[in-house]
Amino acid sequence: MTTIASSVPVKRTAKSHKHEVDFSNLEFGKYISDHMLVADYKDKQWGEAAIMPYGELSMSPAILALHYGQAVFEGMKAYKMADGNISVFRMHKHLERFNISLSRMCMPAITEALFVQGIHALIETDQDWVPSTDGSSLYIRPHMFASEARLGVKVSDQYKFVIMTSPVGPYFTKPIRVKVEETYVRAAEGGTGFAKCAGNYGGAFYPTQLAREQGFDQVLWTDARDHQYIDESGAMNVMFVLDGKLITPKLTTAILNGVTRDSILTLAREMGIPCEERKISIADLEEGFANGKLTEAFGAGTAAVVSSIATINIHGKDFQLPAVHDGSLQMQIKKKLYAIRVGLEPDVHQWNYVILMK
Ligand SMILES: *Cc1c(COP(=O)(O)O)cnc(C)c1O
Questions:
Q1: Which atom of ligand 1 is nearest to the CA of 260?
Q2: What is the pLDDT of residue 172?
Q3: pTM value?
Q4: Which band of pLDDT confidence, cut at 50, 70 and 90, is reported for residue 175?
Q5: pLDDT (tens digit, 9 = 90+) per residue, 79-90?
Q6: What number does CATH give the domain 18-169+344-355?
Q7: How confident is the model at residue 173 (pLDDT cuts 50, 70, 90)?
């Protein structure tokens, strides 16, 4: 999918700070590119977006986002393609989810024009920031927050929409250790778990920190009512290979509908792998470990794409998964996804939004 650039006004920085960036060692989220896009919502409508040098915004400490939490974000990636153009992965799917999250938080929808043309123009402006080394990409962070200054509890009448980007390297992590969480809850049915809102992260920090102190990398969240069924792993969706099938928790209002999750399910089905979206209980995992049929477990999300799980701790006991190898389903899918993104495999689903470079 290719489109024509828009007419977002650009005020270029007089002083790029790209030379300060070590592109051979890109820590996730450490560097922010030279420009950002900012748009304001006021009097029930969006004003003109503008691209300007990345920097501080001045605002009151009374803005409602800081007190009552109306803040929503997205995360997606742009890749330098083999032919030199730039692809943004599943931009419209991210826009759709952004609006679902915004609606849950009583925030106004973003228009397709503002989101798509904004990202397009911002990436054109900072095209030199898209890394070209294998496995690296430009992470795109659109977000919106309540910007009305007022102390009374209310739904904000004013919002800011900002897009920033950050060059990121390949996310090599060693396989992680996760702990099945049976005390704390990330999200309950009927709550905001399906929305990518800031508060979900704030609430997850404490239990995650406790798990880290106990020697784990992440928690494996379970359902809020019974702590019986698996929801997600940290801020990733979670997938298992059980008895040769790819299984992942069926979406509920407590689970974030991940774009990576959806992409992996689509590719796996095309590869002829049986896939199931269903409830997965702790007992299912225990049984899979006992009979050796649980062969893979991994987190799925934009940042890491696939994050292998080496160990799952259930009721205080560690269970090990077999080592990942080139033939593992997660490795095959990760490679395929990357090949599609950079144009080495045909993009049959039109997942790539292609920005042509001049
Ligand atoms: C963003 C996110 C994911 C992953 O979604 P992707 O669209 O694949 O990046 C999963 N779980 C949570 C809680 C998230 O915030």
A1: 8
A2: 67
A3: 0.96
A4: very high
A5: 999 999 999 999
A6: 3.30.470.10
A7: confident
Q: Please write the tens of the pLDDT for every residue from 207-252.
A: 999 999 999 999 999 999 999 999 999 999 999 999 999 999 999 9
> Separation of 256 CA from ligand 1 center, angstroms?
6
7 half-sphere exposure, CB direction, 13 A CA radius: 0
Of 137, 168, 256, the residue with max ligand 1 atoms within 8 A of its CB, to mutate for a pocket test, comes to: 256
Q: Could you tell me if the CB of 218 is within 6 A of ligand 1?
A: no
Question: What pLDDT score does 7 carry?
Answer: 80
Token readout for 227 is 């702590």
CATH number of 176-324: 2.60.40.10, 3.50.30.20, 3.90.110.10, 3.20.10.10?
Answer: 3.20.10.10
Task: Between 286 and 30, name the one with better pLDDT.
Answer: 286
**DSSP annotation of 106:** T
With a 6 Å cutoff on the Cβ, whether 177 touches ligand 1 is no
The Cα–Cα gap between 37 and 50 comes to 6
CA angle 339, 133, 173 (to 5 degrees): 80
**What is the atom index within ligand 1 of the atom nearest the CA of 196?**
15
Question: What ranges do the domains of the chain cover?
Answer: 18-169+344-355, 176-324
The 10 Å Cβ neighbour count of residue 355 is 21
Q: How far is the CA of 141 from the centre of ligand 1 (A)?
A: 13
- The enclosing H or E element of 167 equals strand 159-168
Radius of gyration of the chain (CA): 21
Residue 86's φ and ψ, nearest 5 degrees, are -120, 135
Helices marked H in the chain: 64-68, 91-104, 112, 118-125, 198-213, 259-270, 282-291, 329-341
Structure tokens at 269: 């089905």
Topology agreement, domain 18-169+344-355 and domain 176-324: no
